[in-house]
Automatic annotation (TrEMBL):
The keyword Phosphoprotein applies. Residues 15-37 are annotated as: Disordered. InterPro entries: CheY-like_superfamily, HATPase_C_sf, HATPase_dom, His_kinase_dom, HisK_dim/P_dom, HisK_dim/P_sf, PAS-like_dom_sf, Sig_transdc_His_kin-like_C. It catalyses: ATP + protein L-histidine = ADP + protein N-phospho-L-histidine. SUPFAM superfamilies: ATPase domain of HSP90 chaperone/DNA topoisomerase II/histidine kinase, CheY-like, Homodimeric domain of signal transducing histidine kinase, PYP-like sensor domain (PAS domain). This is histidine kinase. Residues 17-28 have a biased composition (Basic and acidic residues). PROSITE patterns: HIS_KIN (PS50109), RESPONSE_REGULATORY (PS50110). It is an enzyme of class 2 (transferase). One of its GO terms (molecular function) is phosphorelay sensor kinase activity.
Length: 637
């Protein structure tokens, strides 16, 4: 019966083993006592220990020799009668026989006779060498929860192996005598003391509380239950269930919901602003056709356009944070991008900061939008410069790394794989832990009022996530900060850089044909119609998808190209395209939207034959998109 003494100390109860066994019942399928799950019998003895008789149950339980009063089991019963005074009350005891614990209840009956009632759990068929009690002990000893018993002084007087392997040096008795509270994180100790002190004397288990236990690599979140055993109310039994993964998933889910809500808000605001900015920059372009350089109004119009472009950059940051901005990813050489960018970076950081660029060997290519990746690097370098007001050193290092285990920081978990690593390291002031936890939150900034929007790092984080990568930060106050970007290494074929072709669209943006323009925002539609008419196109305007379908199906006009907004009330852009192509399957289409191209292409079956123009766009960009979509494909070009 290995481990019984330990578990009696852990689970409590009377010191006599027989009382535990006497009360034990094996439940049947209905939850009540199963009479056939135990072996029972009765032996009658005289008050002087002499054997009188034994029933058939006792003979089956103790062996054939019990029928005549022979054998060790009957001898033990005689000894129990001689050692105990059973004249006034029942006496319980137990002994081992045939690998089982046999509980004994001694009762005095008239005429100087003592009745010994025997009870033993029947051996399970699949474990003939172990009693049910042994099986329960083994299950508790190796259960995947921590279980321990603590004394009134707070010291551990019993525990299972799992607790020792989890929080201690290992071994079945390794933590006996240790204090329990030092195993709990300091910020949780007061709550644990209160729960232990308030454990109900009825023996009921307390409500669970979440506590942090262990330290360093073994620090985990555990759900703690406390019980005051009835057999020894001065002590406490504590159960610890590891819920670290569950709590981590709950935090990730709550954070993702919060970020999703903020992202939807940012995306909606960005969409509306893109419509306004499209009209602003578009009408500026129309004005600049009449007010050339040297004109009195030229500088004023350029100021309006430049500020509109600044606003467009801010909107792109919002879309990047919500991961809805338009990306044009391609397979690139990271070394080449950083080498070209280093000249701009040195001008940005000034003379008091030294920039070091260290390229890794045998780097694999990555699939990113080069312009967006450059914005991420610029953002990190500018932040590093601001963290070193007295000067310092910024190092940009690249390398190829392969992880075999998930890499975790906070709620972010990077799966194993091969990554290209970019590190931006500074020797600045560093960040405290509470700032590091919030560094990628939108609108969170440590800069003075008016010095930052709080969107820089959250935007960079959103861009890297759209690339399928990960960004981590490691900072020490007074030492510096390291931002680590992990981009999936590209293992496919290298893509050839496609040129725009020999059509020279920049020099000739005029065209002919009929364009159906579908846009629910009046300023955007009026500007686009006026711009296209100025380039030689015949323009049919529709304020909604329903109006466009009515126009096409009613008069059945000749339409050479359709330009449609994606987000419209009623029939939206993707639905309109599907309806129109039922009758005109080869009609070229240009979609305009403030949202990302990926969101559009997921909603259109034949997305490859649809061109995309992101808002805000200029007159020139609109003319280029229409000219390119309306030109026939020349196989020889």
């Amino acid at each position: 019966m290995r481990g019984f003494s330990l578990w009696r100390a852990l689970i409590g109860g009377p010191s006599e083993r027989g009382s535990d066994a006497a009360d034990r019942r094996i439940p049947d399928g209905d939850g009540g006592p199963a009479e056939d799950a135990v072996d029972r019998g009765c032996v009658r003895l005289g008050a002087d220990g002499r054997f009188l008789d034994a029933d058939a149950g006792a003979v089956a339980l103790l062996g054939e020799s019990a029928s005549t009063g022979e054998g060790k089991p009957v001898a033990r019963l005689r000894l129990m009668v001689l050692k105990r005074d059973v004249s006034d009350s029942e006496v319980t005891d137990s002994f081992e026989h045939d690998g089982r614990s046999v509980s004994v209840t001694l009762t005095a009956v008239p005429e100087g006779v003592v009745r010994a009632d025997l009870c033993a759990a029947r051996k399970p068929a699949d474990a003939p060498q172990e009693t049910v009690l042994e099986l329960v002990v083994d299950a508790l000893e190796y259960a995947p929860i921590g279980a321990l018993r603590i004394s009134d002084e707070g010291r551990i007087v019993g525990h299972n192996r799992f607790l020792s392997d989890w929080l201690g040096p290992g071994g079945s008795n390794a933590m006996l005598g240790f204090e329990f509270l030092p195993l709990v994180a300091e910020h949780d100790r007061d709550r644990v003391r209160q729960v232990i002190a308030g454990a109900d004397a009825s023996g009921e288990t307390s409500r669970p509380i979440d506590v942090t236990v262990g330290g360093g690599d073994t620090e985990r979140v555990a759900s703690m239950f406390v019980r005051r055993p009835r057999g020894n109310p001065s002590q406490r039994v504590v159960y610890l269930i590891d819920v670290s993964e569950q709590r981590s998933l709950e935090v990730q889910f709550a954070q993702s919901q919060k970020m999703q809500a903020v992202g939807q808000l940012a995306g909606g605001v960005a969409h509306d602003f893109n419509n306004l900015l499209t009209a602003m920059t578009g009408y500026c372009d129309l004005l600049l056709q009449r007010h050339r350089a040297g004109d009195q109004s030229f500088a004023d119009v350029m100021q309006i356009k430049q500020n509109a472009n600044r606003a467009a950059n801010l909107v792109r940051q919002l879309l990047a944070f919500s991961r809805q901005q338009t990306l044009i990813p391609r397979v690139v050489d990271l070394t080449e991008i950083l080498s070209d960018l280093s000249h701009l970076l040195r001008r940005l950081i000034g003379e008091t900061v030294v920039l070091e660029l260290e390229h890794g060997r045998d780097l694999r290519p990555v699939r990113v939008d080069p312009g967006q990746l450059e914005q991420v690097i610029i953002n990190l370098v500018v932040n590093a410069r601001d963290a070193m007001p007295g000067g310092g050193r910024i190092s940009i290092r690249t390398g190829l790394t392969e992880t075999v285990r998930p890499l975790r920081q906070g709620d972010e978990v990077m799966p194993p794989g091969e990554y290209v690593l970019i590190e931006v390291i500074d020797t600045g002031t560093g960040m405290p832990p509470d700032v590091q936890k919030r560094i990628f939150e939108p609108f969170f900034t440590t800069k003075d009022l008016g010095q930052g929007t709080g969107l820089g790092l959250s935007t960079a984080f959103g861009i890297i996530k759209q690339f399928g990568g990960y960004m981590f930060v490691d900072s020490t106050q007074g030492v510096g900060t390291t931002f680590s970007i992990y981009l999936p290494a590209w293992t496919g074929a290298l893509e050839a850089t496609a040129a725009d072709g020999p059509r020279r669209l920049d020099t000739d943006l005029s065209g002919t044909g009929t364009v159906l323009l579908v846009e629910d925002e009046d300023p955007v539609r009026l500007f686009a119609a006026r711009a296209l008419r100025g380039k030689g196109y015949t323009v049919l305007e529709a304020r909604s998808g329903e109006a466009a379908l009515e126009l096409l199906r009613g008069e059945n006009p000749q339409v050479d190209l359709m330009v449609t907004d994606v987000m419209m009330p009623g029939i939206d852009g993707p639905t309109l395209i599907r309806e129109v192509r039922k009758d005109r399957p080869s009609l070229p289409v240009v979609c305009i939207s403030g949202y990302s191209e990926d969101a559009l292409r997921q909603r259109i079956a034949d997305a490859e034959s649809v061109a995309f123009l992101p808002k805000p766009f200029s007159l020139k960009q609109l003319a280029q998109a229409v000219k390119h979509a309306s030109l026939p494909i020349d196989p020889g070009s």
